[in-house]
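beta-lactamase: structure tokens wanted.
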Amino acid sequence: MKKIYLSVILFIIFLIPVCSNAQTSLHDQVEQIAKPAKAIVGVSILNLETGDTVNYNSKARLVMHSVMKFPIALTVLHLVDSGTLKLDQMIHVTKKDMQKTYSPLRDKYPKGDVDVSVSDLLGYMVSQSDNDACDILLRVLNGPQTVQDFMLRSGIRGIAVRASEADMASAWELQYTNWCKPVEMNLLLDKFYTGKLLSKSSTDFLYKLMVATTTGPKRIKGLLPEGTVVAHKTGTSPTSADGLSPATNDVGIIELPNGKHLIVSIFVCNSKDDEATRETVIAKIAKAAYDYYSK
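Answer:
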């Protein structure tokens, strides 16, 4: 019996360094990819089924930009679940709502004066990252504070939504008021995917919108095998005259070929690199995580 106990103890002793070294290996890869970037790179990776995590600058407060549309969508759908809103509820959109910004919605209805459903506004905002749809939904929510309140009630302390798209466009410094910690964004994604925030129908609806995302094809999805399912939300800031880009981001859920799921949040902030380099950093980190956890 003593020999059996000794064998088990020796097995555990030798197993722990192997597990530790494997995790360290992925962290080292992330660090090697991130370090050459002329930016602050923040990364949080979670294997949903095993609970294994890899973090790099994951508690830094980093600029979100359109990643904020994910918590906004969660807040809207929470109100749908509570009966305050309905997906087929029509929202009147005026010409004033159509700002000079990135907006497929405005491209379709340049003069406004049209009724658009909550469901369609969510599709524009999430799948196409439409800025006007975002601000229209924020108006329906009575402003960013409603989103912030829902985050706090959901146990999320490291995400701040303070400014609308129009606010951020009005003054350069206001984009920095919408920030998150990558580890907290991963926690929010985890709570969302595991059904802790919304009803199953709302969770499934938003997940499909995120899978249908058209922005950032060279980020998380950039180096993954063709056909890999990724439910994600991107965020991209403008670039200043001196070449500073406060935000090039992508966060989401990757379906692995072994049936498991990776939750990843990757932020490249305050960068002096060009867009291709920033996006490649995200793609390489996502691919390293995909390869490691697909084994």
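The first helix runs from residue 2 to 34. The chain has one domain: 37-293.

Cheers.
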